[in-house]
Amino acid sequence: MFRFDRRLILNFDWILLLTVLAVIGMGLVNLYSATTNGYTSSHIFIKQIYFYIIGLGLVVTIISVDYRVLISWNYVFYGVIILLLIMAKFFGNSAGGAQRWINLGFFKLQPSEPAKLAMVICLASYYYRKDTGKGFSLRELLAPGLLAGIPFVLILKQPDLGTALMIAMIAVSMTLFVKLRWSTLIIIITACMIIAPLGWKFALKPYQQQRIETFLHPEGDPLTTGYHIMQSKIAVGSGRAFGKGFLKGSQAHLDFLPEHHTDFAFSVWAEEFGFAGSVFFLACYTFMLLLGLNIALSARDKFGVLLAFGIVALIFWQAFINLAMILGLLPVVGMPLPLFSYGGSSLLTNMAGLGILFNIRMRRFMVQTT
Amino acid sequence: MKRITLKKFIPTSFRDKHKQDLNQRTVISRIHRMDESELQALKRRTNIVIFIILALFGILVIRLWFLQILRGSQYLKMSENNRIRLQWLPAPRGNILDRNGRPLIVNRPYFNVTWNKEDAPDPELIIRKMAAILKVNVSEILKRIREAADYPRHLPILLKEDIDWPTLVYIENHQYELPGIHIETLPSRKYNFGNLASHLVGYLGKINEKELKKFGDSYLPSDQIGKMGIERIYEKLLRGEKGRRYVEVDVHGFEQREIMEQDPLPGKDLKLTIDINLQQTAERALQGKAGAVVMMDVNSGRLLVLASSPPLQLQEFIGGISSKNWKAMLNDPLKPFINKTIQGQYPPGSTYKIITALAGLSEGAITPDTIFNCAGSMLLYGRRYHCWKRSGHGAVNLKKALRESCDIYFYHVGLKVGVNNLAKYAISMGLGRKTGINMPNEKPGLVPTKSWKIRRYKQEWQEGETMSVAIGQGFNLVTPLQICEMTATLANGGTRYRPQFVESVIDADGKVVRGFRAKIDGHALGSKHSLALIRAGLVAAVNEKHGTGSVAKMKSILVGGKTGTAQVVRLAQYRHLPAKDIPYKYRDHAWFTCFAPAGKPQIAITVLVEHGRHGGSEAAPIAKALLEQYFNGKAAKHPTDK
C-alpha cells in the first residue's frame, strides 16, 4: 500500500541513530552495574532490554508514517493523554504518595511521560497554524497557555512536581522559540515574580518545599533529607578522574545511593567511569541533541522545525535538570535522564520523540522537490 | 499511489481546509510558502538554542570537574568511610602472677552489647527492641546514648555490660533483625584469690572522658582501663594492643565481606614478687582490723607481702561499682580505700629507737657499754618524763635498752645527739621521704628538724620535743613500708634497696621481656659495726628474758625484732584506764618490725595494727606466723586455691 521511496532511506540520519545507540548502550551498561547482584543480571535489566526493543519497534512504526499527519491528529493525542491523566488521578497505582501509574497489565504506564511529548506535538501544531509575524501578544497566548495549563495542573496534582515543571518548561521554550512580543515577555516575567512566592506557599506540598530547602543546605541533615544529594555527590566525586571501574562503585552496590537505577543512574556512571567517562557521555549526549537541532534546521516546513525543536527541548531539559540534580546544582525532583534511566514510560516516550525526529529528517526531500 | 496514501492519513478537517488543492505537492508547496519568512527566523534562533545547550552542558562539565577532580579524593574518602567499617578486636589483658607463677588475676570473657548509631536506619525501633531484650528501661538506654553524644558518631555506644548467656544467644540469633547491634567480647578480670592484695593489684573501670582525652586514639569509649594499683600502673603492659578488622558494610550496616584482619596483641603477664600464701596469711591475720603488713627481701628490696586491711571488694568493681557500695566503702571507719602500707602515716613509736641508737653510736654519744640509769622517770626543765615501765629498768646499756625498750635510755641519747642528728640518720634509713615504690600517692612521712619546726609552726624547737622524737613519738610520721625498708637496711648492713613488687614482665610467648633488677637508693649513715650492735639488741628483744618481742621467738631461726606503741592522743583522761576501756579511735597503734635469720638476714617483716595498743601482743604474732610459714617451708606448699 505504501510505495517505498528510496529517498526516505537516503535521507535517514544514520549518524543520529549511531549516537542514540551509543547513549542507549551506555545506559544499558550502567543499568547492568546498577542492578546486578554481582553474578547475574537482574530482571530489571532484562525488562529494560524489552523496552528498548519495543522502543525500536515504535521508532520504525513512527518513521513509516509522514509526521505531518500529527498536525491534525494532535488533539486526538491530546485528548487521550488528558483522559489518561485523569484516570491516573482516580484509578492509578500510587507510589510514594503520588498517583502516577496506570496498570496496563503487561506494564505500568505513567501517563505523565507521554503527556510531555503530546505537549510538544500540540504546541508545534498550534504554533504552526498560527501565523505570527510580529510575535505573540498576551491574548494570543491564552490558547496555548490553556493547552499547557490543563496537563500541568493535572500532573502537579498527582503530585509530580518534576514532570509538571517539565510541561511548563516545554511550553515556555517553544513559545519563546516562535517569538514573543517584548511587551508580552516583560509582562509574563513580572507576573511570575509576583506569583512565585505565592506558589511556594500554597501550591507546593510540604515535602516539596523541604526538598528545595534541603537542596539549599544539604549538609544540615545528611541522614534524612539531605541524604540523596549528599550520597549522590559522594558517588560522583569519588569517581575522580577515571572512576572506580565497572561494577566497582561502592556507593551504588552497597545501596548508599538511592534510586540508583532510575533518577540517579548517572551517579553510578560517574562513580564507575569518573570524569573521563562522564565527559564522554555528556559529549555523546550533546552531539545527539545538536543532531536533533540539525534536523530542525534541515526541516523544510515550520511544523517540522517546531516539532524537532520541541523534541530536542524535551530531551535536553529533562537531561539537564536530572544531571544538575545529581551533581547537586538543583533540588531533587523526580526526573529521569532520557534514554539512560530505567523506566518504560519515559523510555518509550523519548524513543517516540526520536522516531519523530528521524521522520522529519527523512521527509525533508518532500518539500525540496517543488 | 502516494497521493492516495496521504489522503488516507490526513484527516478530513485538514483536507477540508485545503480542499481547493488536494494535490500533495501543491499542499506542501503551499505550506512551504506560508512558512518561508518565519522559517528563516526560526532557524536563526536555533543558533541561540545551540549556544544555550552548550553553555548549560558546559556548566555540568565544570561541576563534574569540581566534584571529581578538585574534590575527588575528599569524596573518595567519604565513600570509603561510608562502606568500610573498622571493628576493634579486644586484646586479652595480661595475667598477674605471684612469685611462684601462680595466677592471682586472670581473664574471663564477658559480653557487652554495643550499638552503632550510623548503621541503624531506625534508631527508635532498635532502642525499644533492645530495652526489651536487655530487660532495662528505655530511659536508661537513652541516658547512655545522651552520655555518648559527644563521642564521634561512628563509635559504638555501650548499651549494657556483662550480659548473661541466654541474652547473648538471643542477640546472636536475631542479628539480622537488629542492625547496628553488636556483641563485644571483652576479657574481664577474674580474681582467683578474692580480694587478695587488693590495694596492690587495684581494679579496672570504664574509661572516663578525661582519660579518653588523655590517651587519645588507643582507647574506645566502651573500654576498660586500670583505675588503681598494678592495673593502672602497668596498664600499658597489661592491655596489649587491639586488633583491627575492616569489613565492608552496606547501607544497613550488614557485613558484606572482610577486607583485612589484624590480630590483637595480647597484653603481657606480670609476675610479682608477692607470695600468695604469705599474703594470704598476712591478710587473714589482719581480718577485721585496720592495719598493714609488709614483708621484704632484705637483700634485693623484693616485696613478698604488701597487705593493707581492710581490703577493697574487687568484685564490686567489675562492670562498674554502684554508688551505694562506693559510699559504704568511703564511710567505713576502717578506711578500706587507704592503702595503709604506703598511705597510712603513723608515729613510729619505739621502732624509732633503732634510729636513735644508730645516731648515738655513730655520733659517739654512746658506746655499747654506756650506761644510763632508769628510775622510771626523769626531770628536764621542771617537767617529768616517764619510762613506759614506771618502776624503772635500773642500769641500762644499749643491748638492754633495745631489749626492754627503755625510754629513759633513749631520752638521754636523743638529748646528746640532738634532733637534727636524729633526722640525719632517720633520712639515711629511708624515713621522711617516699621510698620510691612504683605506686602513686605514696606518703612521705615526716622527720622533724629544728628548721622544719620554725617553717611549720614559727616556733623554736624545745628540748623536750627531742626526747619525744627520740622514742618515736611527737612529730614523727612513718609508713609501714618505710619501717620495713629501715629494718631491711639495718638487717643487710646498711644498703637501702628500693622496694619493688614486679619480678618480671612476660610476653604472650612466655619470654621474659623485663626481669627484676635491684635498685639501691642509698646507704645508712654509720658503720656496719653500729648496725650489728643494734641488730644484737633486737635479737635480744625477741630471744632473751624480758624482751619485748618475745612473742616472735622461733625455735629454729634466730629473729631480731622491735615492738612499738604509737600514741594516738595524749589525753590524760584515758591514760589511767585499762587498755581495753579506751575508745577504739583513741587506742595506740601497735608496731612490730623484725628481720631473720639474725646471722644472715633474708627477710624483714613490719606489722602495723591500727589502734592495736601493744606491739608485742597485737602485731608480733602476725609477724611470727609469717616467719613460721616462710622458714618452716609452709610457704612452699600450696594450700587449695580459693
Tags for this entry?
heterodimer, A: 370 residues, mainly alpha, three-stranded antiparallel β-sheet, 15 helices, globular, B: 642 residues, alpha+beta, Penicillin-binding protein 2a (Domain 2), Beta-lactamase, 3 domains, seven-stranded mixed β-sheet, elongated
Mean pLDDT of chain B: 83
The percent range for helix content of chain B is 25-40%
* Most extensive chain interface and residues per partner: A-B, 66 and 56 residues
How many helices of chain B? The count is 23
Question: What number of domains of chain A?
Answer: 1
Question: Globular, elongated, flat, extended or rod-shaped: what is the shape of chain A?
Answer: globular
Per the CATH scheme, the topology name of the largest domain in chain B is: Beta-lactamase
What is the CA–CA distance across the termini of chain A? Answer: 24 Å
* Unreliable stretches covering 5 or more consecutive residues of chain B: 1-22, 635-642
Percent of sequence in beta strands of chain A: under 5%
Distance between the termini of chain B: 113 Å
Your description of this structure?
The complex is a heterodimer of chains A (370) and B (642). Chain A is mainly α and 370 residues long. Chain A has one domain (6-368). Chain A is 68% helix and 3% strand. Chain A has a three-stranded antiparallel beta sheet with strand order 1-2-3, covered by helices on one side. In chain A, strand 1 and strand 2 (98-103) form a beta hairpin. In chain A, helix 2 packs antiparallel against helix 3 (43-63), helix 4 runs parallel beside helix 6 (142-156) and helix 7 (161-178) packs across helix 13. The radius of gyration of chain A is 21 Å and the shape is globular. Chain B is an alpha+beta fold. Chain B has three domains: 2-65, no CATH class; 84-272, Penicillin-binding protein 2a (Domain 2); 276-502 and 514-631, DD-peptidase/beta-lactamase superfamily (Beta-lactamase). In chain B, the strands form seven sheets. In chain B, strands 2, 3, 4, 5, 10, 18 and 19 form a seven-stranded mixed beta sheet that branches. In chain B, strands 12-11-23-22-21 form a five-stranded antiparallel beta sheet, with helices on both faces. Chains A and B meet through helix 4, helix 10, helix 12 and helix 13 of A and helix 1, helix 3 and helix 4 of B.
